[in-house]
Specification:
- The protein is mainly α.
- It has one domain.
- The chain is built from 15 helices and 2 strands.
- The protein starts with a helix and ends with a helix.
């Protein structure tokens, strides 16, 4: 395990690291839309559709770090920039996400875990899982997803976890959250419309969000906890997946180091690989919960 000094060191946030991550995600989005506009090809459309969904997942993972207050040291900067650059593009509220996600860190996999509808009940029959994926692919899950995330934060609040990092307790003004969503997506659509390709916003931003992103979120989500039972040692009910190619698609920004994240939620994403190596060297990770790919995870969760 980490010493108090090591935990303090690796819990330090870096504005540079966070800004670079946000910039690279957006650069990838710009590059994909540039390819759609200037390199039109029948193979480019499905490839860009999938990769844009992956970029949306990357923004969602950065929103997750923002919900933990791990993007920027200043709570105000963390909350406002996190909302504008990671949550708003997804038509989402970082503040709403924070409220239910910190509850997940209290006791994963218990009945009151906000994620239980996604990660509970496994293993399941393969046919049942295929039906879930089809609902994701056809956009049916998206509306349930939105309703779920806006309903959960309004449920009765539970006590705060001493392990989960508590960002600024003052929520962002609702007016600002709405404004940020309208501003970012308005600029996005307006730029594409000015270039004569406004239709791309619907077909290559909104539709991937409703379909591909839902598939990626499901696979990432169940890989983190599904199939386990609640445990006071949260590393025993979490998984870490180490496969650079697969995690590029399913777990960007080191969210695949999920045992480490639950043990030390104060550690920002860019320090998790180092923490993983240190914990391995000290034999403090349950090795049976380290997987080399998502195929083995799904094999364990489906019957």
């Amino acid at each position: 395990m980490l010493s108090k000094e090591e935990l303090r060191r690796y819990s330090q946030t870096s504005a540079t690291e966070s800004a670079i991550a946000i910039a690279l995600d957006w650069l990838g989005i710009v590059a994909l839309f540039a390819a759609l506009i200037y390199l039109p090809h029948f193979l480019a459309f499905p490839l860009c559709f999938i990769l844009i969904g992956r970029q949306q997942l990357a923004l969602a993972i950065l929103m997750h770090d923002g919900a933990h207050g791990r993007l920027f040291k200043s709570p105000q900067v963390n909350d406002y920039l996190g909302q504008v650059f990671t949550a708003a593009p997804l038509f989402f509220s970082q503040d709403s996400y924070r409220k239910f996600h910190l509850k997940h860190h209290l006791e994963p996999l218990v009945a009151t875990d906000p994620d239980i509808s996604l990660i509970g009940g496994y293993p399941i029959p393969t046919k049942s899982f295929v039906r879930k994926l089809l609902r994701d692919i056809f956009g049916i899950s998206y509306f349930k997803f939105i309703g779920y995330f806006f309903y959960q934060p309004r449920r009765k609040k539970s006590s705060e976890s001493t392990k989960a990092v508590k960002p600024s307790s003052k929520r962002l003004p609702v007016a600002f959250q709405v404004f940020s969503i309208l501003l970012v997506n308005g600029l996005f659509f307006g730029t594409l419309f000015y270039l004569g390709h406004g239709w791309l916003f619907l077909f290559f931003w909104v539709l991937p969000m409703m379909t591909i992103l839902q598939v990626l979120l499901r696979i990432r989500g169940i890989a983190e906890h599904a199939g386990y039972e609640a445990n006071t040692n949260q590393m025993l009910c979490s998984r870490t997946v180490v496969n650079p190619i697969q995690t590029f698609f399913f777990a960007p920004h080191q969210v695949n180091y999920h045992m480490e994240h639950h043990q030390y939620p104060s550690v920002p994403f860019y320090h998790l690989p180092k923490v993983h190596r240190m914990m391995l060297e000290r034999d403090s990770l349950p090795k049976q919960n380290i997987f080399r790919g998502y195929g083995k995870v799904l094999a364990d969760l489906l019957n």
